[in-house]
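Good day; I would like, with your permission, to put a structural problem before you. The record follows directly beneath this note:
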Amino acid sequence: MDAAETAGKLLTPVVEKQGYRLFEASLTSDKEGLTLHLVVDRDDPISLDDIVSLSDVLNPILDENDPIKTPYTLDISSLGAEKPLDPAILGECVGKYVCLHLSHPFEGKNILEGEIKSADEEKLILAFNEKGRKKEAILPRVNVDKARLAIKF
């Protein structure tokens, strides 16, 4: 197990206790030295203050347990406003603005961006704009390869 994995296993219970999920832990090296990158997620938006608070909790644990034996910088970030979504949970995303990648095109389009109006186990309804006109797509759930939150402009 490498140092990033060790740090991730050490920090996962603490991160979860703080109300987050540890999405990724990695260790990189550049001319500035080593950096331990932690990517966290939760259902609610994550602010810079949240990142600072989480850093204040994790730093002493890393210092005490010393999973990385050489000096390093801790970098914590979130998945961001356009975080990836598991297509299996799209039923929980009704009312959210998303970008969907489809395995079978809808009216010739493999990528659709819009608001999920409804979703059940077999299909979902996506409201989107096309050339200024409002449209709805009824999509089989199995056709959704990838999904992420999107920002509506």
